[in-house]
Amino acid sequence: MSRRGSQAISRPALYILLVFFSVGGLFLGLRFQIENVSSQFSQSFDSEMMAIAEQDFPPREFVAQVPVSILSLTPERDQIIITYWALGGLITGDQIVDLSEWRDQFDSIEIRGFFLPGEYSVEVSITDRILRLEFAPS
Known about the structure:
The structure is a single chain. The termini are far apart. The protein contains 2 helices and 7 strands. By secondary structure, it is an alpha+beta fold. It has helices at residues 4-7, 11-54, and strands spanning 60-66, 70-76, 79-86, 91-98, 108-112, 118-127, 130-137.
């Protein structure tokens, strides 16, 4: 006869496995949510910038809802890199707004503002061949 105790998983090990899978599931769900919110922000921001670019960058203002996960918007040549970050860096990623098609309109990009979650008014203009984006809380 075999002993049931030696073949079965002990209760502490079962609890540890249950906690491990619960935390893993929560982490994956949170990761998906952060990526989804960041992607929605990036797509919205990208469509606003494309609409402005198609009109040759007239001074214009639009409203952007910045989610919790957005850490920064960084200009890099003819692109704006939107970086999201959460859980102490465990969840990170970048989205890119490419403005290379309109590169002849500006020489560089300057972004001003402080990025905390919330609604921002974004003023877009070109001054001295510098594409300026200024974020101000709404």
